[in-house]
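Batch manifest line 452
LIGAND: N-(aminocarbonyl)-beta-alanine
JOB: complex structure
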Amino acid sequence: MNYDLVIKNGTIVTAAGHYQADVAVRGERIAAIGQDLQGHRELDARGKYVTPGAVDIHVHMQMPLGEGVISADDFFTGTRAAALGGTTTIIDFVEPEPEQSMVDALAARRAEADPKVVIDYGLHMTIGPAEIAKLEQVPAAYEAGCTSFKLYMAYGFRLNDGELLQALEAVRDVGGWPVIHAENWDIIQTLIARNLAAGRTEPRWHPRSRPAAMEGEAAGRAIDIAAYVGVPLHIFHVSCQAVVERIHAAREQGLPITGETCPQYLFLTWDAYDAPGVEGALPVCSPPIREQAEQDALWQALSRGHLQMITTDHCPFTRADKARGLGDFSQIPGGVPSIEMRFPAIYWRGVRSGLLSLEQWVNACCTTPARLAGLEGKGDIAIGYDADLVIFDPDQRRTLSTETLHENVDWTPYEGLEIQGWPHTVLSRGEIIVEKGDFLGEPGRGRFIHRQ
Ligand code: URP
Ligand code: ZN
Ligand code: ZN
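JOB STATUS: finished
ARTIFACT:
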């Protein structure tokens, strides 16, 4: 039988194992896995891995921060960079205006994304303080395909504990999945004020105003409230051992609590904030990047399965935007770019060093994010799944820099990092969108994933 396309002779890597076989695609789906399959088009993957397309459930494209500041990747440039790094599905966010219904805000966000995306995408619905008065809209948002709900314990969107309780109850009642930014805002505000009053205005005071222990406290509190309500909870961008311990303790009790970390916490340390001028402001993100010991603890947590996934929290701001906060670290727009390097860099630092197995790499970057976020047909190589596939060349070397990456931003926190292993060819629903490292996709070819 002839298939549309067959990837031949590669080593298939899934969360469950790795083995040599061909993968056949018919239309948009994986149609067969086996030996000596034949297709109208055949791609030779000898000496390469064939993985599921990577899944990044935490990104912020063209995210407005106010005063004209907006994250620098739009839905085209950001998804193109994602694809070039082997990511074929993302989840971004809907942030309703105070007077806007959740469903109207979803339609508005889709109108921004649909013409631009080159890979498939979903959206998390944000429940901020203004949404607490409209929690009866949660079922409609769920029906419209937003089955996950973002809650903040920091920033203007933050919920107090009573509001958190109400939001978690509403998400529980529709069978949704809450995801949370856990930090202790009151303590952060107090420490920021104290540091600024003492003339400590440089970026190095950003992590020193957001202690790891208080990130742990906030995560523990959120977990306790979720357990009381009886709902799963996913902790975003875990930066430290204090949060890992809370997640692990909850899971030991059988609670459906999960956590993710991100490349910035796995590759950088807080020394980056000591760089002079705007350089020290560039890596500002929240939670902050921490000491080497925290980085080591996060790798250990991934290795032991105490953290369930790696996302990016991709949220780039330009040098000019970052410079707005020089003189007051608390005004530096928070967020860093990582969307293109995540999948290959985790292979390089994780798998090549022996910290992670091939299966753990794929599980953390593809399979578990897809499963937990309800992305049906994504994140695995199995018959009937979407033919989102990466032919990954473990030998290809790349030096990360603004010259070699495709994110729409004039810096990268990984400048000069030399890694080995990079996507050679990327398929999205059977279509080759990256071939030999060249981007071939068209804006608007990606689809909104109406999650169930
Ligand atoms: O500083 C960060 N992480 N910015 C992106 C928004 C968020 O908190 O996830
Ligand atoms: Zn966050
Ligand atoms: Zn984020």
